[in-house]
Amino acid sequence: MRASTVSKEFAAPDGSHTQVLNGVSFEAAAGDFTVIVGPSGSGKSTLLHCLAGLERPTSGEAFLDGVNLNELTPRARARAYRKIVGFVFQNYNLIDSLSAWENVALPFRLDGRRPEVSRVDAALTVVGLASKRKRLPSQLSGGEQQRVAIARAICSEPAVLLTDEPTGALDDVTAQFVFDQLKRIAANGAAVVTVTHDLVAAERADRVIVMRSGHILYTGLPIPATEITAIFAAGEVSR
Ligand SMILES: Nc1ncnc2c1ncn2[C@@H]1O[C@H](COP(=O)(O)OP(=O)(O)OP(=O)(O)O)[C@@H](O)[C@H]1O
């Protein structure tokens, strides 16, 4: 997945405009676990939404498997996303009336296919929820619901996995576990892109992107959390 000079401007009802992304470019390579960090409001989620096709960039392009998404019809774009991209966003989008297992199996049903039982079971095992597979979302904690959403996203073995704060509702140990799983999914060949506020966890990624005010200020190998904080504060790369 590649973003090329992506900009995004939001229009307010009073006619004013907010420039949220300013010509952002980067590539998330297959096999890499890329983490996006930045202060609150720096444009991380907006970037992820543009990559996920949920927001249309004001200008710039996003490429999936080398295909420019702007050049596809909405239907072809939706199909490309369903086939290639998995998402975990902040509101986990679980269906209340379905069990954890059924929620994880949902993408198969939406695709008109019978769920592959072994894959659904394996995905729930990866996130440590095999024993709670029959529970409804309302019978799970927030962190467990988040992990069901992760299991659902990884179940279809997407080539690109986009996750927004996947560990936001988790304790440190479980968060580390989830990060390790994301890293493993990348090591198995997917391009995994994760937005997080966890700067220490970011040190374990393959690549880090540091954003501020809609710009990418650093992209490269992981750097210590203290250096990232310095970039947030100074607005420039400290090395
Ligand atoms: N639909 C919208 N209309 C207007 N402004 C928006 C909209 N969505 C986001 N913004 C603004 O864009 C800026 C970036 O938001 P975004 O959610 O991308 O930031 P973020 O870095 O993910 O922040 P956080 O870490 O707090 O989740 C914010 O100032 C936000 O208020």
UniProtKB/TrEMBL annotation:
Keyword ATP-binding: yes
Pfam families to which the protein is assigned, alphabetical: ABC_tran
Keyword Transport: yes
Record domain ABC transporter: where: 1-238
Parts of the chain that traverse the membrane: none
PROSITE patterns for this protein: ABC_TRANSPORTER_1, ABC_TRANSPORTER_2
Keyword line: ATP-binding, Nucleotide-binding, Transport
GO molecular function: ATP binding
Protein name per UniProt: ABC transporter ATP-binding protein
Source organism of this protein record: Luethyella okanaganae
